[in-house]
TrEMBL record:
Positions of the catalytic residues: K37
Gene3D superfamilies hit by this protein: P-loop containing nucleotide triphosphate hydrolases
Lineage: superkingdom: Bacteria
SUPFAM superfamilies assigned to the protein according to its UniProt record, in alphabetical order: P-loop containing nucleoside triphosphate hydrolases (SSF52540)
Subunit comment: Homodimer.
Annotated source species: Roseateles koreensis
Entry-linked Pfam families: AAA_26 (PF13500)
UniProt protein name: ATP-dependent dethiobiotin synthetase BioD
Family per record: Belongs to the dethiobiotin synthetase family.
Main location: cytoplasm
Amino acid sequence: MRGFFITGTDTEIGKTCITAGLTHKLTQQGLRVTPIKSLAAGQERVEGVWINEDVQQLHAAQTIGMRPEQVGPLQFRAACAPHIAAAAEGRPIERAPLLAAIRASAALGDLALVEGVGGFRVPLCAGFDTADLAVELALPVLLVVGLRLGCINHALLTAEAIRARGLTLAGWVANTVDASMPHVTDNLAALDAALAAPSWGHVPRLPIPSAVAVAAHLTPPSFSPVLESSL
């Protein structure tokens, strides 16, 4: 399995927008990219079908014919912590089936972008959280830093937790959450120095954060369609 595990400094900081943007950007490099929303909590019924907005966004960004259920293999109705949503529906999250579903979707392309849920450590079931999921998948990690007050602390703590589990922090993306945040340049410089990982871009507050619009602000490495074994 080749690709990246995409996590964030918190929930609602734009992981899905960044994942969609990266899907578009890397597809332009000639890669068959499989964006995967590992777990999705929060659905609405549209024309008789239950959909999740994040899954729909990632599905729209891919170009290899994935089905929505391959992009979002595990979805719940309630918009809350996934273990709570799972309990409410009487559908406990099971480690092995979740991992198998993610790997099956990843196998459809050259490079998988597996998005976590919330921050780096979100409970999924007894003894298993999203950090454990990242370890099981053994992918390099891309950190989405939501630019707002406190982001340096959140980013450094998350990077520390990633590395403590033996995972590689492959890079980070700054995503503007608070458009009025002061001293953005100074914050970016502090993050760049302290994270000790390459920046993959800084996304401003966009009026319409489409995959194409986000991709214009991303600078991931160039990957050959025949990926290096170290990925």
